[in-house]
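Lab meeting tomorrow. Please check the following:
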Amino acid sequence: MKQFLVLWLLLGSGSLLYSVENIDASKEQIKIEDISNERSRANMQKWLNGTFGLKPYKDNYLIPIGYATKEYPSHKPGIIYDNKEAELQVSLKLQILHNLFGLDERYYLSYTHHAFWQIYIESSPFRESIYNPEGFVVFPVSDRDSMFQMRSFKFAIAHMSNGQPNTTDIAGFNGFNLSKSINYFYATARFQHGTLLTDFTLMAPFPGSANLSDNPDIMKYLGYTKIKFTYFLNDHMFSLMVRGNESSLKGAIEAKYSYPLYADTYLYAKIFHGYGESLVDYNREVTKFSIGFSFSR
């Protein structure tokens, strides 16, 4: 029954996205042609059009089924998690400034919410929700002559946490702390060679960040470097991400695939292997296959 609920939510989301271009039924009979005040008419037109300043940032998706090769530990007394779960992500950005230093750079705020939903067990709890706000600036780069073909440089300040309390001293948790978080910087250089995009990222936590007290060795598993390849072939989109820590030799690899179904709905599949799939189990190796639908690429 819960599986059908997820599917219903999915289809509803797809229908909603499909109808974005149409005027809301509650507004379609409103006429503004005879309004003499130009500013009022312009703002009413903007309202009718449903202009939305927020844009997709990372992948937005709903995955009804993700299958890991072993069960997830719950860390919570009396709860046993399955190795099957649903997964969803909502990720949006808002441009707030442009060309502040005359370099055609753009400044953004973004928010990504990533949730792991144990719909296949009793009461269907969320195994973890990750909250990831960012502030970043993107500088366009017009490199047409060199072999690198650099297209942009991005610098970001970000926070990532699971919003859980410190449980270290609470009976029943056996000293385990559910709270996981990190403040960090990262910089990404993007390159293009035809339909192949390459993103190279360097990441570092805030110096002396108090958040690392929840997970002092997290960078050992997340790593300081990441490279992502994105390739377009006709309607198909493929991506391959590899990140890691050169000292610990730990990290992760993730492959994704998407294909348009209708409007802004895509078939979406991914395979993940390594560490850091979720924050609460950042130091646990996971292999997981997931398939569902995305609403942005």
Remarks:
- Helices lie at 2-18, 38-49, 218-222.
- The chain is about 10% helix and 45% strand.
- The chain has a mean pLDDT of 90.
- Residues 1-52 form one domain.
